[in-house]
Amino acid sequence: MGRDLLLKHGLIVAVVLASVLFAVPPQDKIHLGLDLQGGLHLVLEVQVEKAIERAMERRAEAIRRDLIAKGLSVAVVEAQGAQGVRLAFSKAPDRGPLEEVVRNYDASGTVRQQTPELWFYEPAAAELQHMRTSSVDQALEKIRNRIDAFGVSEPSISKQGTQRIVVQLPGLQDTQRAVELIGKTAQLDLKLVHSQPTMPGAQPPPGTQLLPLKKKDPKTGQFIDAGGYFVERRAQVSGDMLADARAVPDQANAQYYVLMRLDNRGKKIFERLTRENVGKSLAIVLDDVVFSAPVIQEPIPGGEARITGNFTPEEARDLAIVLREGALPAPVAIIENRAVGPSLGSDSIADGIRAALLGASLVVLFLLVYYRFSGLIANVALLLNLVIVVGILALPGLGATLTLPGIAGIILTLGMAVDANVLIFERIREELRLGKSVRAAVDAGFNRAFSAIMDSNVTTIIAAVVLFQFGTGPVKGFAVTLTIGIAVSMFTAIFVSKTIFETILRVRRVTKLSI
């Protein structure tokens, strides 16, 4: 046996051994998708226009502070969504300082004068588009942080299109709790209470808004409407000033509350707020719902506040997680919510294995009956194909996820591997009919079938790449396994099969080939 043949044998043995080592525990197991082990599949849509509204409200407040710092007589600065910010002054301002302040936030924005005292800032189209894009990116990052804090292993979180986010949590049991944790906006604000409505349908005073008050029904455990408050539109303290939040048991009862600790900037603002408003009520607002409105008894220098609501331990912990990880830049709408039970996943695995075994058995039988000894060689290559594909899927750094369509992709590649062998064997038969020796016929068969096999497989890989690029979830799983399987089938059908033929032809003097 020549040195070149020994090197080929060594390569084949090394590839197979590596595949077996990766596929067998305690190495990383193959990650199973939702359809095989159960879990949660969510498609979320970020309400980007709401994100723009909030961003413009923050920008309006920042512009107001800067205008006051420049000595301009500001009367009202009011955000009007994506349209812009209305700027009213008690005395006509100079255009220069006004434009300078606005340009600090939006270099391409437009500042228009409507009257000497009334101006309007209109954001540039590129600025609005940046707000839309960044709001989706921020939402994706916040959701990822929440899921990591929740403790789900192997989550899949990705952007779909311009404003949708796909979340897959395999193996998750408590799906409802996860949905609430992911979908909660968690926009925290501390706002001064102006008054309570005295009659239904009362209009809020200027500069205020009516927010509902929610309290927990001790019988049902659900939060119910309990009136409402007129609160100031402008938040004195917001969630971005939060340094920490944690669930704490209430010693007075068996419930929990959430203790918040503000950062240094928030501490200073909170201390000044409580010092200047002793005797007034301060509403703790979460997602435009008042959870409590305690009366300020004295200045609070420590920067700590609590959210009470007779929470269960899980509710308090989840609320602390979303507050700690930060609010979503905008509400998210759940477009698709699909939970797969573990029993259904087990059935899918069993059905997939049965289908794979049945398909493989029929292929093996066909090759043995039709191509006899050469069919046995093809079956050996087919077995190695399966081993190597499984080993690649289990590679630690690949992060491949096996889904039911992925199993279909593996079965399809088995068929394509057989197709390659059929092309090679039929070519060898043609060469033998032309009167060539067995060695010459084998060499010619492999060489002449190579281009057809390569063209077919490359075309299929291109289609798989397109599926992976534009597909989601199960479609991507199918594309990954199909691509891996095709690449492996090229190795086994051409390299492994030819090496076996060469070994037999060198070891024994073969004058007739069973094919």
Automatic annotation (TrEMBL):
TM region(s), chain numbering: 352-371, 376-398, 404-425, 446-471, 477-496
SUPFAM superfamilies xrefs: Multidrug efflux transporter AcrB transmembrane domain
Biological processes, Gene Ontology terms: intracellular protein transmembrane transport; protein targeting; protein transport by the Sec complex
GO terms assigned for molecular function: protein-transporting ATPase activity
Places the protein is found: Cell membrane
Cross-referenced InterPro entries: SecD (IPR005791), SecD/SecF_arch_bac (IPR022813), SecD_1st (IPR048631), SecD_SecF_C (IPR048634), SecD_SecF_C_bact (IPR055344), SecDF_P1_head (IPR054384)
Domain Protein export membrane protein SecD/SecF C-terminal per the UniProt entry, residue ranges: 333-504
GO CC annotation terms, alphabetical: plasma membrane
UniProt key word Membrane: yes
SecDF P1 head subdomain domain sequence ranges: 228-330
Presence of keyword DNA damage: no
Keywords: Cell membrane, Membrane, Protein transport, Translocation, Transmembrane, Transmembrane helix, Transport
Domain Protein translocase subunit SecDF P1 per the UniProt entry, residue ranges: 136-194
Membrane protein topology class: Multi-pass membrane protein
Pfam families from the UniProt entry: SecD_1st (PF21760), SecD_SecF_C (PF02355), SecDF_P1_head (PF22599)
PANTHER family linked to this entry: PROTEIN TRANSLOCASE SUBUNIT SECD, PROTEIN-EXPORT MEMBRANE PROTEIN SEC
Role: Part of the Sec protein translocase complex. Interacts with the SecYEG preprotein conducting channel. SecDF uses the proton motive force (PMF) to complete protein translocation after the ATP-dependent function of SecA.
Oligomeric form and interacting partners: Forms a complex with SecF. Part of the essential Sec protein translocation apparatus which comprises SecA, SecYEG and auxiliary proteins SecDF. Other proteins may also be involved.
Family: Belongs to the SecD/SecF family. SecD subfamily.
Protein name in UniProt: Protein translocase subunit SecD
Provenance organism: Tectimicrobiota bacterium
